[in-house]
From TrEMBL:
One of the protein's GO biological processes: retrograde vesicle-mediated transport, Golgi to endoplasmic reticulum
Record's bilayer topology term: Multi-pass membrane protein
Transmembrane helix in keyword set: yes
Lineage: superkingdom: Eukaryota
Organism: Dioscorea zingiberensis
Region (Disordered): 261-322
One Gene Ontology term, aspect cellular component: membrane
Protein name (database record): Rhomboid-like protein 19
Entry keyword set: Membrane, Transmembrane, Transmembrane helix
Compartments it resides in: Membrane
Major subcellular site: membrane
Length: 322
């Protein structure tokens, strides 16, 4: 669906020799894909399973486990296909950089927090509009976590150019914003928007909260990413940032005790003490290390796929052919 290009590297579609595109999926992602496919098959055999596995706000109490299970349970064939493909390919990019434990933790935390956000939204909409459909519509799907993956891509490679549907080029940092824009626009023409729109919005926001303040890097044991390039306002056009920054600083104070707009040296704090990894310079270095690791892995995959035929290629040439 997407390809990319930049002066130093490229994610263009490989020629026939680049069959490695469809290999190298991680064991964790394969296992999660089996769960997604198995959940869909289970629904086809036992349709009543959605009563217990999907998020039905009116039945979440006492079926509280559906706050967890709903994220790994697809109700439609297109949904399971998109979720499985997205998990395999994005996981192939993110898991080697984050580590399997952190990657799985990200999926679990984002899925759980997204489900809570969707549950609260459904209850709120019911009391506002008094429509029982908000309480009894089964909500499920992996698209909240998939949307969250885009935030991870934004963090790791924000300036990487991607070809969206082979038509328009866009930098990776705008992917979450484009998905939100398309989803909100589509909601005006689709009657089932309450079943997917809150999940996508909360998936993106909760993943940003986690990566911004709580993710711990296993190689450095540092926490969070307080850089300006990953601020909340970075998801919006430049013209809106002067309005958004003061609002975002309120949430920043609640989560880490320091305003983003303060002229003091920035750093995430908790109870007045700096959190490890709160140095924005260190956050920038971590992002650069992640970008270098990504480039090296792509170059290694290309050389492996060509059977060593790229021995004479420079590092940049190998990347250009990925």
């Amino acid at each position: 669906m997407m390809s990319s290009s930049s002066p130093s590297s490229s994610f263009q579609h490989q020629p026939p020799g680049g069959s490695n595109l469809f290999f190298g999926f991680t064991r964790l992602c394969k296992g999660l894909s089996v769960i997604l496919v198995g959940g869909y098959v289970l629904l086809q055999i036992f349709p009543s399973a959605s009563t217990y596995l999907a998020l039905i706000p009116a039945r979440t109490i006492p079926f509280a486990w559906n706050l967890i299970t709903s994220g790994y349970f697809e109700q439609s064939l297109p949904g399971v296909v998109i979720s499985t493909i997205g998990l395999l390919f994005v996981g192939k990019l993110l898991e080697p950089l984050w580590g399997s434990k952190e990657f799985l933790k990200f999926i679990f935390v984002v899925n759980f927090l997204t489900s809570i956000g969707v549950f609260v939204t459904a209850i709120t909409l019911y009391y506002i509009r008094r429509e029982e459909s908000y309480l009894y519509t089964p909500i499920s799907g992996f698209h909240g976590v998939l949307s969250g993956f885009l935030v991870g891509i934004k963090q790791i490679m924000p300036d990487q150019e991607l070809s969206l549907f082979f038509v328009a080029k866009i930098k990776a940092k705008w992917l979450p914003s484009v998905v939100v824009l398309i989803s909100v626009a589509a909601s005006f023409f689709m009657t089932d928007s309450p079943s997917y729109l809150p999940t996508i919005l909360f998936g993106i926001y909760m993943s940003w909260i986690y990566l911004r303040y709580f993710q711990r890097k296993p190689e450095t044991n540092l926490k969070g990413d307080p850089s300006d390039e990953f601020s909340f306002s970075s998801f919006f056009p430049e013209i809106l940032r002067p309005v958004l920054d003061p609002i975002a600083s309120l949430f920043d104070r609640m989560l880490c005790g320091k305003s983003e707009t303060s002229g003091e040296p920035r750093g995430h704090t908790l109870g007045g003490s700096p959190l490890p990894g709160s140095d924005p310079i260190e956050a920038s270095r971590r992002r650069e290390r992640g970008a270098r690791a990504l480039e090296e892995r792509l170059a290694a995959e290309k050389l492996s796929a060509s059977g060593g035929s790229g021995e004479g290629l420079s590092h940049e040439d190998a990347l250009e052919n990925v």
